[in-house]
Write a structure and sequence with these properties.
By secondary structure, the chain is α/β, with parallel strands linked by helices. It has two domains: 169 residues, Alpha-Beta Complex (Quinone Oxidoreductase, Chain A, domain 1), CATH 3.90.180.10; 134 residues, Rossmann fold, CATH 3.40.50. The protein is built from eleven helices and 18 strands. The strands form four sheets. Strands 3, 5, 6, 9, 10, 17 and 18 form a seven-stranded mixed sheet that branches. The chain is globular, with a radius of gyration of 20 Å. The two termini are 20 Å apart. The structure holds zinc ion. Zinc ion (ZN) binds next to helix 3.
C-alpha cells in the first residue's frame, strides 16, 4: 500500500502533526489528485487551535485542508469528462445529490453536506481523493497557486454576484483574505465604489492593492456618518460583512439606505441583536446569507472574470511554505500585526 505525508489533527487537542498515512483510494466516481498547492483558511486555524466550534465538528484523526489544487493522476471507472494531467480546483462542499436542495439547484447548502478537510480527509497531503462532481477543471492560463485560491475566492464572487453589485456603492466589513477577495470581486463585477472597513491598518493597506476606492477605520466614532454620506446621505446600497464581528454587522445593516442589501458571510460567535422593525422591515432592507459557492454558476463566472483579466487574486498571496513547515505557516497566518494575506503550501 503506497503511503504519503499529511498534516493531521491526530488527537482532540491543540495543534497538528505530520503523519505517514495510506494514499487515499480512488472510488468509481472519484478522481485521485496529486496535490500541487493548497492555501490556509480561517477554518484551518479554528481546527488547529481546537476552539469550541472545532471541538463540536471535527472528529480526529483528520487530514486538514480544503483549499486545494491538484493534478489528476487516476480516474474512477464511472468518471468521464476529465483526464489524467488536468489541473483541478476542489469544490470543498460535497453534496449528496438527493436531498431537497440538491434537487433544486442548491447543492452548496445540501442537507447532508460533507466538507473536505472538515468532515472527511482534506488535502494538506500529497494526494487527495474527491468525487469527480467536485473537481473543477482549470484552463491552461491558471497556475496551481491561483487554482488553490478558487475555493475561497468563490465565496467572494458568490457574495458579490448574489448582491448584484453592478453600479452600486458597496462597503466591505472585515478585510482579512475573505474581505480582500470580496473587494476584488465587487470591482470585477462593476461596483462603482467599494469602501473597505477594518480596524487593522495592515488589512486596509492590502485592501488598496485589491482595488478598494476608500478605506475606513472600523473603530472611528464617526464611521456611521461617513458611511451614510454616500448617495447624498441616503446610505449605502450594499454592505457585505466578512468579519463576523457583532458591531460590524450591526453597523453594516444600519448604514444601508432604505431598500439596501446586507450580505452576511462572516460567522459571528453568538446571536446578533437587531431591531427588526427599524433595521429591516420599515427600511425595506434585504438580508442575504452566503455560504460556499453556487455549483457551478459561481465557478463559471469566476473563470470568466479571471480569464478576461477583470479579477486577479494573485496580489493576495503574501507567503509560501512547504507543507512540512505547516506549524510556521499557520503561525504566520494567525498573526494580526503583519501584512498577511493568503499563505500557500506546497507538498
Ligand atoms: Zn443534498
Amino acid at each position: 500500500m503506497p503511503t504519503m505525508r499529511a498534516v493531521m489533527k491526530k488527537e482532540a487537542a491543540l495543534g497538528t502533526s505530520h503523519q505517514t498515512v495510506d494514499v487515499p483510494k480512488c472510488g468509481p466516481d472519484d478522481v485521485l489528485l496529486k496535490v500541487k498547492a493548497a492555501s490556509i483558511c480561517g477554518t484551518d486555524l479554528h481546527i488547529y487551535k481546537w476552539d469550541s466550534w472545532a471541538q463540536g465538528v471535527i472528529k480526529p484523526p483528520l487530514i486538514l485542508g480544503h483549499e486545494i489544487a491538484g493534478e489528476v493522476v487516476e480516474l474512477g471507472g464511472r468518471v468521464d469528462g476529465l483526464a489524467v494531467g488536468d489541473l483541478i480546483s476542489v469544490e470543498s462542499h460535497i453534496p449528496c445529490g438527493k436531498c431537497y436542495q440538491c434537487r433544486h439547484d442548491l447543492r452548496h447548502i445540501c442537507d447532508n453536506l460533507q466538507i473536505v478537510g472538515v468532515h472527511r480527509a482534506g488535502g494538506f497531503a500529497e494526494y487527495l481523493s474527491i468525487p469527480a462532481v467536485c473537481a473543477w477543471k482549470n484552463g491552461p492560463a491558471i497556475t496551481s497557486d491561483i487554482a488553490a485560491l478558487l475555493e475561497p475566492l468563490g465565496n467572494a464572487v458568490y457574495a458579490a454576484s448574489e448582491a448584484q453589485v453592478a453600479g452600486q456603492n458597496v462597503a466591505v466589513f472585515g478585510c482579512g483574505p475573505a474581505g480582500l477577495f470580496t473587494i476584488a470581486a465587487c470591482k470585477a463585477l462593476g461596483a462603482v465604489k467599494v469602501i473597505a472597513v477594518d480596524v487593522n491598518p495592515k488589512h486596509l493597506e492590502m485592501a488598496t492593492s485589491m482595488g478598494a476606492d476608500e478605506l475606513l477605520d472600523g473603530a472611528d466614532p464617526t464611521l456611521m456618518e461617513r458611511l451614510e454620506s454616500h448617495r447624498g446621505g441616503a446610505g449605502l446600497d450594499i454592505s457585505i460583512d466578512m468579519s463576523g464581528n457583532h458591531k460590524a454587522i450591526v453597523t453594516a445593516i444600519r448604514s444601508l439606505r432604505k431598500g439596501g442589501t446586507f450580505v452576511a458571510f462572516g460567522i459571528p460567535p453568538g446571536p446578533i441583536e437587531l431591531n427588526l422593525a427599524n433595521d429591516v422591515i420599515l427600511t425595506g432592507r434585504r438580508i442575504l446569507g452566503i455560504v460556499g459557492r453556487h455549483m457551478f454558476r459561481t465557478w463559471e463566472l469566476m473563470q470568466r472574470l479571471i480569464e478576461s483579466g477583470k479579477l486577479n487574486p494573485a496580489p493576495i498571496i503574501t507567503h509560501r511554505y512547504k507543507m512540512a513547515d505547516f506549524d510556521e505557516a499557520i503561525r504566520v497566518r494567525a498573526s494580526t500585526d503583519a501584512r498577511v494575506g493568503k499563505v500557500i503550501l506546497t507538498p
